[in-house]
UniProtKB/TrEMBL annotation:
GO terms for molecular function: 2-dehydropantoate 2-reductase activity. Signal peptide: none annotated. Residues 188-326 form the Ketopantoate reductase C-terminal domain. NCBIfam families: apbA_panE, PRK08229.1. Belongs to the ketopantoate reductase family. Residues 15-160 form the Ketopantoate reductase N-terminal domain. The keyword Oxidoreductase applies. Keywords: NADP, Oxidoreductase, Pantothenate biosynthesis. It catalyses: (R)-pantoate + NADP(+) = 2-dehydropantoate + NADPH + H(+). This is 2-dehydropantoate 2-reductase. Pfam families: ApbA, ApbA_C. It comes from Marinobacter qingdaonensis.
Length: 352
C-alpha cells in the first residue's frame, strides 16, 4: 500500500533541502539550528567545507548561529528524500527540471515540495517532473550572500511565502521556531510577479558590480530599474495580473520612488526596505562565479509575457542581452551609460 504524507502526524517533520547553496544552506541551516530534522542535498565541494567547519549563519539584525553538521546532514544523494515530510527546492532556475528528475524516483506520493526560487515558472516545471507530489510555489524575499565558504549572511528584510497546499499548515510551527516565518498565500501568482518586479534590479546590480545599497544610492541605476519596472507593470495590467505589497510601498509606486532625486529617495528608502551594506544580488554572485545567470527566468519572463500579449518589452530584452554579453565579456556598466543604453533600446523599439 502506498503511504501518503500526513505531516500533522509527524512531531518533528523530516525536511530535505535540495540545492544547498545560499538560500538552501541559510533556510535549511536556520531550521537545523532550531532543532528541526534537516538534510541538505548539495555538491561535494560545499560538503567538504561543512564537514571541516561549522555552518555559520548571520543576519542583518545580529542573529548568529554555528552548527557542526553530521555526515548524514549533508549529502549528494537525492534518495534521502524517500522519507521526507517536506522538500525545499533551492537550485537556480536552469537546474529545476534536472532537480525534479533527480527527486522523482524517490519521492513518496503526496509529499509537499516548495520551490524557494525566483522567477514565475519553477513550480510548474517541478510539477511536470513530479506529478505525484504536492508542489507549491514559494518566495524568498530576502537576500543571502555567502560571505566566506560556509558562512551565509541574510542581508535584507521580509518573510517566506508559499502557495497554500495540503499538508503545509502543519509545518508552519517548525518554520516559526526557526525564526523564519512562512506565510501561506492564495494569491501566489501575484506574489511571484511582485517579487519579480523587485528582482528586475538583479541584472542592474550585477552589471553595476557594486553592493545593492551603493547601486541603489545612484539615481541613474534607480532610473534603469524604474524603466524595467514600469514596462513590466504595464504588461501585468494588460494581462490582468495584480501585484501585492512586498515592501512598505505598493508595487505601482515603487518605480516612481526609484526615479526620485537622491535627497528625496534617501528619506524614503530606509522606510521601504532594510538592506545592509554587503548585500548583493544572486545574479551578481552568479556572474562573479562565472556561472550562467537566471536573467532568462527574470527579465526573460517579462519578454515572454509581452510576446503573449502581442507587445514588446525593449527595456527587459536589452537587460537580458547585456547580462548575457557580460557572462562572456565581464563588461560592467556605470549608471549613466546603462541608462543611455536602455533609453536607446526603447527609442529603437518605438521606431520599429
Ligand atoms: N541568493 C539570494 O539572495 C536569493 C536567491 N533567490 C533564489 O533562490 C534560488 C537559489 O538561489 P541561490 O541559493 O542563490 O543559488 P546557489 O547557486 O547559491 O545554490 C544552489 C545550489 O544547488 C546546487 N545544485 C544544483 N543542482 C543540484 C543537484 N542536482 N544536486 C545537488 N546540488 C545541486 C548548486 O550547485 P552548482 O552551482 O554546482 O550547480 C548550488 O550549489 C534561485 O532561484 C534564486 O534566484 C531568492 C531570493 C534571494
Ligand atoms: C533578495 C533579492 C531581491 C536581492 O537582490 C534577490 O532575490 C536576489 O538576490 O536574487
Amino acid at each position: 500500500m502506498t503511504r501518503t504524507v500526513t505531516p500533522d502526524a509527524v512531531p518533528n517533520p523530516r525536511i530535505v533541502v535540495f540545492g544547498a547553496g545560499s538560500v538552501g544552506c541559510y533556510v535549511g541551516g536556520r531550521l537545523l539550528a532550531s532543532g528541526a530534522n534537516v538534510t541538505l542535498v548539495g555538491r561535494r565541494r560545499l560538503r567538504d567545507i561543512l564537514m571541516a567547519h561549522p555552518l555559520v549563519l548571520t543576519d542583518y539584525q545580529g542573529y548568529r548561529s554555528e552548527t557542526h553538521l553530521t555526515p548524514d546532514q549533508f549529502t549528494e544523494d537525492a534518495s534521502v528524500v524517500a522519507d521526507a515530510d517536506l522538500v525545499l527546492v533551492t537550485v537556480k532556475s536552469a537546474a529545476t527540471a534536472n532537480a525534479g528528475e533527480s527527486l522523482a524516483p524517490h519521492l513518496r506520493p503526496g509529499t509537499p515540495v516548495i520551490s524557494l526560487q525566483n522567477g514565475i515558472s519553477n513550480a510548474a516545471v517541478l510539477e511536470s517532473r513530479l506529478p505525484g507530489a504536492s508542489v507549491s510555489a514559494g518566495m524568498v524575499p530576502f537576500n543571502v550572500v555567502q560571505k566566506q565558504p560556509g558562512h551565509f549572511h541574510h542581508g535584507t528584510e521580509g518573510h517566506l511565502m508559499a502557495a497554500r497546499t495540503d499538508g503545509l499548515d502543519a509545518l508552519l510551527p517548525t518554520f516559526a521556531r526557526s525564526g523564519l516565518a512562512l506565510e501561506l498565500r492564495d494569491d501566489m501568482l501575484s506574489v511571484l510577479w511582485s517579487k519579480l518586479l523587485l528582482n528586475l534590479n538583479n541584472p542592474i546590480n550585477a552589471l553595476s558590480n557594486v553592493p545593492l545599497l551603493e547601486e541603489l544610492s545612484d539615481r541613474d541605476y534607480r532610473r534603469c530599474l524604474a524603466l524595467a519596472q514600469r514596462e513590466t507593470l504595464e504588461l501585468l495590467a494588460q494581462a490582468g495580473i495584480q501585484t501585492v505589497k512586498l515592501t512598505a510601498l505598493p508595487m505601482s509606486l515603487v518605480p516612481r520612488v526609484m526615479a526620485l532625486p537622491n535627497w528625496a529617495f534617501n528619506r524614503l528608502a530606509s522606510r521601504m526596505l532594510a538592506i545592509d551594506p554587503v548585500a548583493r544580488s544572486s545574479m551578481w554572485e552568479d556572474l562573479e562565479a562565472g556561472r550562467p545567470t537566471e536573467v532568462d527566468y527574470i527579465n526573460g519572463e517579462v519578454v515572454r509575457l509581452a510576446q503573449s500579449l502581442g507587445r514588446t518589452a525593449p527595456i527587459n530584452r536589452c537587460l537580458t542581452e547585456l547580462v548575457h554579453q557580460c557572462e562572456v565579456t565581464r563588461r560592467r556598466w556605470p549608471g549613466d551609460e546603462l541608462l543611455a543604453e536602455l533609453r536607446s533600446a526603447r527609442r529603437l523599439a518605438a521606431r520599429a
